[in-house]
Amino acid sequence: MLINFRSIRLWNRYCLLVVGMLGLGSPVAAADGVASDELVRALRDGGYNIYFRHAQTEWSQSDRIEKRGDWSSCDPDRVRQLSAAGRDTARAVGEAIRALDIPVGRVLASPYCRAVDTARLMELGPVETTTAVMNMRAAEYVGGRDTVIRTARELLSTPPPARTNTVIAAHGNVARAATPVYPGEAEGVVFRPEGNGEFSFIGRLTPAQWTELAAAMSDD
What we know:
The chain is an alpha/beta fold. The protein is built from 7 helices and 6 strands; from the N terminus they run ααβαβαβαβαββα. Strands 3-2-4-1-5-6 form a 6-stranded mixed beta sheet, with helices on both faces. α3 runs parallel beside α4, α3 packs parallel to α7 and α5 packs across α6.
């Protein structure tokens, strides 16, 4: 659906976009939106933003954000970090994306250590940090909740460099506030940028789906 919160009127446009843009046949390993294999084939041509919620974390840890910049700490006594499983998941997802020959032009991440680590461990390119997708719990430091919603939507509506995709590693609460999708940990949500603050939800892939598709499509 086209994201400017006119979703009721634009739901049909989303359905037509999916069918018309990708020429879908019968879905295979259906994702929420476009069939998974068709989604991968579309990504190979570039033109999409792939939003990842950071990988699994140590929930016994907690964030202690007391001043601007605390979020960048990789000290587990100050900020929640990726777990060993989360690190393995991030590596596996990145390996799958590379195996699927999906071109990535830019890799962006929230400045939180767990988001930056997720992006780096994917090994898809140099990681740039941006407060455009700042964790909502620290939104007060970057202009407030409405500002983060606006900047996140602007980022998702921005086309990537030609024939590439942009990867964004950030937080579930940002996606929930700025889009109609609440991703699981390390889940990738694909949006097509439309410009002017608008974008279309195309599909989503869990970590397991990324790796399964890489294995299946390598046999094509």
